[in-house]
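P.,

For your records, the input lines for the assembly:
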Amino acid sequence: MTTLPDKTDRKMGLVIDLDTCVGCHACVISCKGWNTENYGAPLSDQDPYGSDPSGTFLNRVHSYEVQPEQGAAQLIHFPKSCLHCDDAPCVTVCPTGASYKRVEDGIVLVNESDCIGCGLCAWACPYGAREMDAAEGVMKKCTLCVDRIYNENLPEEDRVPACVRTCPAGARHFGDLGDPDSDVSRLSAERGGMDLMPEQGTKPVNKYLPPRPKDRIEDQIDVLAPLLEPIAADTGGFIGWLDKALSRLPGGTI
Amino acid sequence: MQPVIDTSPKVSDEVRKTTCYMCACRCGINVHMKDGKVAYIEGNRDHPVNKGVLCAKGSAGIMQVNAPSRLRAPLKRVGPRGSGEFEEISWDEAISTAVGWLNELHETAPHKLAFFTGRDQSQSFTSFWAQNFGTPNYAAHGGFCSVNMAAAGIYTMGGAFWEFGQPDWDHTKLFMLFGVAEDHDSNPIKMGIGKIKARGARVIGVNPIRTGYNAVADDWVGITPGTDGLFILSMIHVLMKAGRIDLDYLGRYTNAPVLVDADTGLLLRDADDKPLVIDRASGKPAPFDRPGVSPDLSATHEVDGVTHRPVFHHMAERYLSEDYAPEAVAERCGIPAPRIRAIAAELARVAFDEAFEIEREWTDFRGETHKTMTGRPVSFHAMRGISAHANGFQTCRALHILQIILGTVEVPGGFRFKPPYPKPVEAHPTPHSGRRPGRPLNGPHLGFPRGPEDLQVDDAGKPNRIDKAFSWENPMSVHGLMHMVISNARAGDPYHIDTLFLYMANMSWNSSMNSSGVMEMLTARNDDGGYVIPRIIYSDAYSSEMVAYADLILPDTTYLERHDCISLLDRPICEADAAADAIRWPVIEPDRDVRGFQSVLIELANRMSLPGFTDADGTPKWTDYANYIVNHERRPGIGPLAGFRGTGDKVGRGEVNPEQLNRYIENGGFFVEHIPEAAQYYKPWNTAYQDWAVGLGLFESPQPYLFQLYSEPMRRFQRAAEGHGDRQPPEHLRDRIRTHLDPLPFWSDTDQTGNAGFTVTALTQRPMAMYHSWGSQNAWLRQLHGRNPLYVPTKLMREHGLSDGDWARVTSPHGEITVPVMEMAALNENTVWTWNAIGKRKGAWALDEEAPEATQGFLLNHLIHELLPPKGDGLRWANSDPVTGQAAWFDLKVRIEKADAPPDESQPVFAPIDSPVGTGPKELRWKVGK
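Structure tokens returned:
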């Protein structure tokens, strides 16, 4: 058993905008690239050119169809990685202390040299956010790019997780969710940021911004209808209207 | 205690900045190097295209440069075509073989070489090579991609979407996109959607399938495929009928006020050939561009009892017709009439009621100075979804007309061109096909016909080109018809060829209609046992399906091992506020015996002493492609790259700078020149822009012009079909030309001959992580999209008793496939679709033969024929747009039924091809640093 810190100085995490995520997987592959080359063991791929390719990814995008009671079905793209929970069950279940939550920023990490690859943490995580690396035999998970966000070898603007830096639609935001005045906290407050599966009691740090309501344009019809009042029933009437309308333009002759 | 970790590890030894080539978007990338190897790829923040972001493909480039499917050396075929049996040869032998085949053709019958390139980003160079070789048979892949969009844009307003222009993302408040799931303009569209959604702007997506951008659209219009033009014209009807159109804009900047000759349907012109308008001040005809003229949209002009009416009268007559009323089109479009009205009303509300002014003075081409610029914050984007129908050209024209009547083109908040666009038809060349053995072609292959006189046919009306481009079958085929080359060469119609030379085009698989038919055509033999297409040369970097069908393989490099230029002479990377171009350079050296294809072309040209490539005494002008990029001058002082000319300080025009590539590398691999503020909008009519463009060398003189709502070139073809002039269409095409070359957009259903009983539309899309990428053998990307079930809407699943994982037999008038299905609700209820080009042939791409792409993956291509079903008139009609010849991929109609006995694999199954590169490793742990 491993203990969690009573509290952390900051709560670094992600705010992910489900209204804007187009499901392009840019974050997935950028994460794969950075974390293959950096923190800990590379993210390996088994049978990468074969019948059942299966690699380690710290971030995946799932797509779900939603059928509202009224109107057309919708498709929601849902990126998922470790949510760096305040009450992280993956940490408390760890028999060796390899899984831990950092006091200074709340990031949940695995110390690979202490990880025995027992997989208990992956069972404990209700989000399926941890993946055992089949080649290395250690548990891999999102580090929130702990080797980028403080990295003095990177320009300051690049000290964000790889997934955030690369997201073309700007659907991923990074910051301190423990500070109510931070940009991410304000954004989450404005847009109704949600916890994922709050009933699990994990108190996730990452927040998801819900999709805005969709397919409402016909509801505006009463407002919009007067904008389309016909000016004429036929071509002749239209030309008559045109003459009058033109006279009101600059340079009009009437 | 918490472990101590290094939070500031060294990121890389060095960052090399070049241009991505994982798709056609051409983003800037930072390639992080460790120990001389590629360690990590990220977006370049300074780059005008992607501003730091990068898509999945771009980040997966690291798996592309180590791909086991990379070809290793030149190959000579030793087994029968299609077997994949090859022997590695030296470059000396490869070049000598190619020269041996080609040189005689150059000297005697250059048209017997057909040279076509696929996703080629060096078209200004490859066309220059083909022109100097002397063959008329050159084009790239636009004919089977999106020529309808490009051609309709140029003919209507001097440019289209993507590389021609973009929404004004900073100001637009309503963005409407048609037929786009992912796009050529990959990252900029995502960035733009993110930007406008962040400020609460509305996105409307029109697409039968609700994925990608349509999934995040605020409103989704799940239109019936092929009816986009009808929907658009219905909105035009509603807007015109309500008078919600920008009359001032139409009068000043379009040919709406230009008078149409009542006798000929051509535009009335003065003695200087200037189109005439009625001046509202004088009430008299005047050339459209005379200083001070105020064109009248309404006034007519009577001469000798004949009344000549302006274009706008003709538009009113057509579009006010109740045929285009929402109620009349709703059922065919699959969109309720109130919804059509609501969308039209919202377009008008945002364009007019949310109009705004930017305090920026500018002067138009008539000499009038405007104190402000008026913003109409509505913008559009469209691509293949509306193009790839046989009515696609007129549909694309209709979309441009919708933008124009709202006054949203080249204004703040609307759609904006990117240099060197806008560029009217008049500034483009006409097509050429005059062959002269041993000498260059008589002009550029591809161009924009102005009328029948520009057709490339002989006196008997027979096409000059192997693809029949610029013939009466498709007179405005401005990108050629790559999809017809192989079937025409097989049929010897219009003639037989000797050598087929292809670059980056997977024609025996996903880049052809009728893939199994194409395999047959490539392997067909004459009575004497020889191949009907005697010689095939192919260049590719990877072991694609097409490799097996060539006789000689010239292996290309990957994109990180080569020089390239993304040139203003070609398809540049400009932004609406700036001209820009870029290079690729070898950030790593190849570890195989491969060469950049463009350098190989130069070597071939030098060995053949091709004109243009060699001086009169046979001395080569350029040693390789890098040398060409720096030293070639298209016109004096104007070369492939606009930046750092002269001693490094000249832009656009300037002497050759031997240090130019180094300056690009120092600058991050690109060059940007910003457009002055006063010149950033109203570009076709803005004197400041026109002067700036001339200064940069984009044109030689200012070229202001009017948007062509009424297309006079089309009218010239139509008039020929009505029996006028020396060049008239053959009888069997007369009606078709008269109908489809209509100078004002109209909508017609596509030819449904043979479709009886086939009632379901079948489409394909490419996933975002693979769009325009020929890298789905990529180890990381194939884990995202390794399978492509047929997505079937809920209604059809129920009707046919299907459940997820079942197999369905899918039949078209042309063929049959049996494939796995999956239910999808967010889909037009009468449309099925799949991800394109996931399916691979066994033996290709260094994949295991049991890879899901090769066992369960499939292509819809087998269901699509390049010809329509026989009509019983003794003729075969191309499955193409009658205006441009664009391949009508999305007109496919099918029937589905549950497969009684599920097969082991998707049907049809093809025999495995021998892999020239073996298969990939069983495990990857790609960490290059210590």
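Two observations worth noting. The first helix of chain B runs from residue 56 to 59. Residues 52 and 772 of chain B are 20 Å apart (CA to CA).

Regards
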